[in-house]
Backbone:
C-alpha cells in the first residue's frame, strides 16, 4: 500500500478538520464519509466526490477504507472504534479514547491483536507550551518533580448543553468538565508528570441543569512521588488559570494560562535554585531561610503543531510501521485518571490506580441511569 484510503465518521464538528486533513495529505485518499445526518452526508459527499453513508457499518462493509477518523460523540468512540478494528480498519479516534477504562482496554487489546494502528486526538501535546514544559522537564531544568498545581477555569452557559444534548449526559459524554473540557489537560498532566497511582477527589455540580460534574478538586499522587492538586471548573470566566510544576532544582510557572482551549502563547517562567533543594535542606542555616530562586521568562518552542502532526504520524505508522504520536497505551492514563477522580468523588474515598474496571463500570451505569448524581451545590 502506498496510499491510505481514508474515511471520516462524524463530519459536522471537528470531523470537518479531519476531512480537510485527509484531503490534503499526499499519502491519503479521502474515499468515504459517514454520518447519521443524511442531508449533511449527501451534500458533503457530492461536493467532494466520495462515497457517503448514513450508517458507518455500510462504509465498513463496502470495503472502501483502510483507515478512518472517528469524530462522533464520546460514547461512540469505543463502539465504532471496535467495529472498525474488527473490520480490519485502522482508527484515529478523537479524544477521549473512551468514556471508561474497560472500553479503552478492549480497544487497545483489539488493535494490538489485529496489528492495526490506534491514534488518539490529543494534539495539545504538540502545542507550544506543553512542548516547552516537556523539554524543560526532560533536560533536567527542574530536577525530580515534587509538586504540581494545575487549574483550568472557563465558563460554559446552559446554552452550551442545550445546543448538543449529548454533552450533558453521563451515558454519552462520560462526564463534564473532566471528560469534555479538560481531557486534554489530564492527558498533558500524565504525559508531563507520569503515571498517577492514587487519587482523592471531590466533584460536584454547582450551576448546571445537565447531569454531569461542572467542578472538580482532586489530589493526585504520582508513581515518581510527585504530589498534585488539580482544580477544574466551568463556572467562572476565563482568567488566571495557574500551572506550576515544581522540582528539586526549579519550578515551571504559568501565572495566567492562555492556552486553555487552543495553542495560544503563554508567559512561561522558570525559577531555578543554586543547588538541589534536597541538598539545601540540610545545608541551609537559619530556621526560616529561603533558598534563592532565579526567575526568567522562557521562550516557547515553536514546532509544527496540532491535528496535522497527529495525522502525519498516523498515516506514517500505517504505511511504514511504528506507532502514532499518541497511541492507545499513551492515551490510557488520562482515561484512568478521569475515571479515578469520578470514582473517588462519587464514593468519597481514596482510589488506587489502576482503577478497578468492574467497580467503575457499575458506578458509570448508575450515573448513566440517573440512580446517583454528582453532588449538587445548594442553590
Ligand atoms: N481534539 C480536539 O481538540 C477536539 C475538538 C473538538 C471536538 N473534539 C472531539 O471530537 C468529537 C466530536 O466533537 P464535535 O464537537 O465535533 O461534536 P459534534 O456534535 O459537533 O459532531 C459530532 C458528529 O457526529 C455525528 N454522529 C453522531 N452519531 C453518529 C453515528 N452513530 N454515526 C456517525 N456519525 C454520528 C453527528 O451527526 C455530528 O456530525 C468529540 O469526541 C469531541 O470531544 C476534539
Residues:
Amino acid at each position: 500500500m502506498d496510499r491510505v484510503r481514508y474515511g471520516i465518521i462524524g463530519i459536522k464538528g471537528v470531523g470537518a478538520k479531519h476531512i480537510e486533513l485527509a484531503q490534503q495529505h499526499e499519502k491519503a485518499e479521502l474515499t468515504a464519509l459517514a454520518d447519521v445526518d443524511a442531508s449533511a452526508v449527501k451534500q458533503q459527499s457530492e461536493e467532494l466526490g466520495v462515497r457517503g453513508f448514513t450508517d458507518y457499518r455500510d462504509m465498513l462493509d463496502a470495503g472502501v477504507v483502510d483507515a478512518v477518523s472517528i469524530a462522533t460523540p464520546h460514547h461512540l468512540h469505543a463502539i465504532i472504534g471496535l467495529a472498525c478494528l474488527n473490520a480490519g480498519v485502522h482508527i484515529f479516534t478523537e479524544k477521549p479514547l473512551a468514556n471508561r477504562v474497560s472500553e479503552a482496554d478492549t480497544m487497545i487489546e483489539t488493535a494490538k491483536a489485529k496489528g492495526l494502528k490506534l491514534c488518539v486526538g490529543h494534539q495539545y501535546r504538540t502545542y507550544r507550551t506543553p512542548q516547552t514544559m516537556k523539554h524543560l522537564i526532560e533536560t533536567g531544568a527542574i530536577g525530580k518533580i515534587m509538586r504540581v498545581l494545575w487549574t483550568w477555569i472557563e465558563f460554559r452557559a446552559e446554552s452550551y448543553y442545550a445546543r448538543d444534548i449529548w454533552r450533558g449526559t453521563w451515558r454519552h459524554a462520560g462526564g463534564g468538565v473532566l471528560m469534555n473540557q479538560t481531557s486534554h489537560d489530564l492527558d498533558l498532566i500524565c504525559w508531563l508528570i507520569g503515571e498517577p497511582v492514587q487519587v482523592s477527589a471531590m466533584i460536584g455540580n454547582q450551576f448546571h441543569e445537565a447531569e454531569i460534574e461542572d467542578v472538580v478538586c482532586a489530589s493526585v499522587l504520582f508513581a515518581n512521588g510527585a504530589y498534585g492538586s488539580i482544580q477544574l471548573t466551568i463556572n467562572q470566566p476565563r482568567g488566571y488559570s495557574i500551572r506550576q510544576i515544581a522540582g528539586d532544582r526549579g519550578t515551571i510557572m504559568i501565572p495566567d494560562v492562555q492556552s486553555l482551549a487552543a495553542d495560544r502563547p503563554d508567559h512561561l517562567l522558570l525559577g531555578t535554585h543554586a543547588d538541589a533543594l534536597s541538598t539545601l535542606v540540610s545545608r541551609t542555616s537559619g530556621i526560616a531561610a529561603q533558598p534563592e530562586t532565579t526567575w526568567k521568562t522562557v521562550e516557547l518552542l515553536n514546532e509544527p503543531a496540532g491535528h496535522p502532526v497527529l495525522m502525519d504520524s498516523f498515516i506514517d505508522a500505517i504505511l511504514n510501521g511504528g506507532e502514532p504520536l499518541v497511541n492507545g497505551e499513551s492515551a490510557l492514563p488520562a482515561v484512568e485518571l478521569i475515571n479515578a477522580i469520578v470514582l473517588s468523588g462519587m464514593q468519597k474515598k481514596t482510589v488506587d490506580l489502576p482503577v478497578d474496571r468492574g467497580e467503575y463500570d457499575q458506578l458509570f451505569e448508575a450515573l448513566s441511569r440517573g440512580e446517583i448524581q454528582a453532588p449538587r451545590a445548594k442553590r
